[in-house]
Design goal:
The protein is 27% helix and 17% strand. The protein has 670 residues and is an alpha/beta fold. The radius of gyration is 29 Å and the shape is globular. The structure holds zinc ion. The site of zinc ion has 3 residues, from loops.
């Protein structure tokens, strides 16, 4: 059955079908016999059932199916990323064992859909990898055959944006790495990318270890991590270097929102972007103007608007568009590729789209929520219903927003989709029952993203199945540099795939979903396009409506830096835009003598340092104000001085009465 030899990396060369992808096929399994007895013992209790959310399925949901066949055991290991698996905070990071009865799977008669083409082909899977693809395959004995006639076979979805068990206000997002990834698999998503997001002042490396410790023992599917940069210092810069070099991180998220919590200032943002560029990572931003939101939300409370609608009203979409534009501008100055997480509004989407047309390297990620529903729910009379939609940035009240975002996604202006899955139950949302500012931000999506995008994108005729694959998996794999290991059906790729029935329908409901949360923002939506069979890392996890997941079986997938899809033209662009010194002959004429006089006049005029900053022309020889000097600044208070204007300190002169002012007297009939 399972090959006892390590899975060797196929050589990948430039100009091959996929081009070179560093480490995409790194060794993933060890020979039998390398596992310790301790690991064998620990593996058994990990086999878990999933009866909770769907009691009607209970009788069929056996632990991992295929019991009693006693097949050879394969050990899958988490790639060595240098993380200590012995740390006390990490309860269970051991490699997991699963039965390999399912390790040989033959999928017959389906239509394979990749992002660039689709074709009829059979697929043979062994040891978690696609081994053969085509027709008239010669299949070894003992393979399980799945009939896929009339169905599509697509790469498993990659959700680029989740927050499983995110700590928030003393509580945690209620879907953890177990229920969250279980739900993902149920909906046809076979990989998530979650965010490491710790407090200001916490080492990014320590935060990373903490998240690995939470995720590794619980994940039912493969996962990767982005790391949030919630503060800035030279230390943080070094931590980014370490995480990129040793820990498999190639994406860092910065916040322009959440003032005093996660927000970076523009100069810090610039430094963070520079660092990302230096290490070959992609910078991500949560783009909203945190200063404005802080002010506007106070205004709402003062006006007595304390309900969930206040959350939307204090964050008009211009606040998102402005921050999106600002992030793009700053990233461009740093020549750093940028990824805008959760594009929620038409105006922000337009900013991304037009920046791309100007040549900026920027990617836009609408999410299931912004593509599938809108902000009119914030006005719902039911507090729980309205609060259930609270997320940042908010859903937009303009009901044409989802369709508009889908148009841009279908046509390449936006590239990739996530969910921002971050779920809180009614009692957790109720922390903000009297003040919308305290409602935990977040909605569901990880389970329903694939169906919602199919329904709103493909079923409406806006995108074809290839584009659906591009925006649900392939582009994510390319951006985060795990392509074609993920995001493609090809020989050598991971066997993460979904048999998709475009004609089947299902109705989304919190009553039947697999997530832990008690609410679903897509409640009642009928979706065409259903994941009928889901295979993750070669294991059949969903078949005949039955979900068979194994807690802790998912692997951490390192994301290497310098993704070609992202960085391919950065060097060329930098070179083309390099500042050029103009070579000219030195000026040989006379230069006015000012050094001594200037010093004298300065003291004579009692110009203090702050005032100096205001002057763009020196004082006159007699120490007076140069009349060419601007008397005001657009920068206003607080930029260079504590005063509004440079001469605020001068005595105020009462008004002068002018009997006959220029232009004539103001008394008259008009
Ligand atoms: Zn998020």
């Amino acid at each position: 059955m399972a090959s006892p030899s390590p899975h060797k990396s196929p050589a990948r060369v430039k100009n091959s079908m996929f081009g070179f992808v560093p480490d995409a096929f790194g060794a993933k399994s060890l020979p039998l016999g390398q596992e310790s007895p301790r690991r064998r013992q620990q593996a058994a209790p990990k086999m878990q059932d999933t009866p909770d959310a769907a009691p009607e399925k209970k009788p069929e949901e056996k632990s991992d199916g295929q019991n009693g066949e006693a097949p050879p055991v394969e050990e899958t290991i988490v790639p060595d990323t240098g993380v200590s698996t012995e740390a006390p905070a990490v309860p269970c990071l051991d490699p997991v064992i699963y039965e390999s009865a399912q390790s040989r799977v033959f999928i017959k008669g389906g239509r394979v859909v990749n992002d660039d083409c689709s074709f009829d082909a059979d697929i043979y899977i062994e040891d978690g990898v696609i081994k053969q693809l085509g027709t008239n395959l010669i299949i070894p004995g003992g393979a399980k055959t799945i009939e896929a006639k009339g169905k599509m076979i697509i790469p498993g979805g990659i959700d680029t944006h989740t927050h499983m068990q995110l700590p928030f206000m003393g509580t945690f997002a209620c879907d953890d790495f177990y229920t969250g990834t279980k739900a993902a698999l149920a909906g046809g998503t076979t990989m998530i990318i979650d965010f490491v997001l710790d407090q200001k002042g916490v080492s990014l490396v320590e935060a990373y270890d903490k998240w690995r410790g939470w995720a590794d023992p619980k994940v039912c599917c493969d996962y990767a991590l982005h790391v949030g940069v919630t503060w800035w210092s030279d230390e943080v810069a070094k931590q980014i270097e370490e995480l990129t070099r040793d820990k498999g991180i190639n994406s860092y998220k910065m916040f322009l929102a959440y003032k005093d919590v996660f927000m970076l200032n523009d100069d810090e943002l610039y430094k963070a972007f520079r660092k990302c560029k230096e290490v070959g990572a992609i910078a991500q931003v949560h783009a909203e103007n945190g200063h404005l939101i802080a002010e506007k939300s106070k205004e709402m409370i003062d006006m007595g608007i304390t309900g969930p609608e206040g959350h939307m009203l204090c964050r008009p979409e211009e606040v998102e568009a402005e921050a999106t534009q600002r992030a793009i501008t700053i990233a461009d100055q740093a020549n750093c590729p940028l990824y805008i997480v959760h594009v929620m509004s038409k105006s922000a989407a337009k900013v991304v789209s037009s920046a791309r047309k100007k040549g900026n390297i920027v990617f836009g990620e609408p999410i299931a929520a912004s593509l599938g529903t809108d902000g009119t729910h914030y006005n719902n009379k039911c507090w729980r219903h309205a609060a259930g939609h609270v997320m940042g940035p908010p859903l937009r009240p303009d009901p044409t927003t989802p369709g508009y975002l889908m148009d841009l996604l279908a046509n390449g202006d936006l590239q990739v989709t996530g969910t921002d899955n971050c779920t809180f139950n009614a009692d957790q949302k109720a922390l903000g029952a009297d003040d919308f500012r305290k409602i935990p931000n977040g909605v569901n999506g990880v389970e329903d993203r694939m169906s919602v995008i199919w329904e709103k994108g493909v079923h409406t005729g806006k995108m074809d199945p290839c584009r659906f694959v591009a925006v649900t998996s392939t582009n994510a794999a390319k951006i985060f540099n795990i392509y074609p290991r993920k995001g493609r059906i090809a020989v050598g790729s991971d066997a993460d795939l979904v048999i998709w029935n475009p004609n089947a329908t299902r109705v989304i409901s919190a009553k039947t979903h697999h997530q832990a949360v008690d609410f679903n923002i897509f409640e009642g939506m009928e979706c065409h396009g259903v994941a009928e069979v889901v295979i993750a890392n070669g294991r059949i996890v969903l078949e005949d409506g039955q979900l068979h997941v194994v807690q802790g079986i998912g692997r951490f997938i390192p994301t290497p830096p310098n993704a070609e899809f992202v960085y391919g033209r950065v060097a060329g662009r930098e070179n083309a835009k390099k500042p050029q010194k103009v070579e000219r002959e030195a000026y040989g004429g006379p230069v006015v003598e000012i050094s001594k006089t200037a010093q004298q006049t300065e003291s004579a005029a009692h110009v203090d340092k702050e005032e100096q900053a205001f002057h763009n022309r020196p004082p006159t020889r007699s120490g007076g104000r140069n009349l060419q000097d601007s008397s005001f600044t657009l920068a206003g208070k607080g930029i260079n001085t504590h005063r509004d204007q440079f001469d605020d300190s001068r005595p105020y002169r009462p008004h002068t009465r002018s009997v006959n002012p220029p232009g004539g007297a103001s008394q008259g009939l008009w």
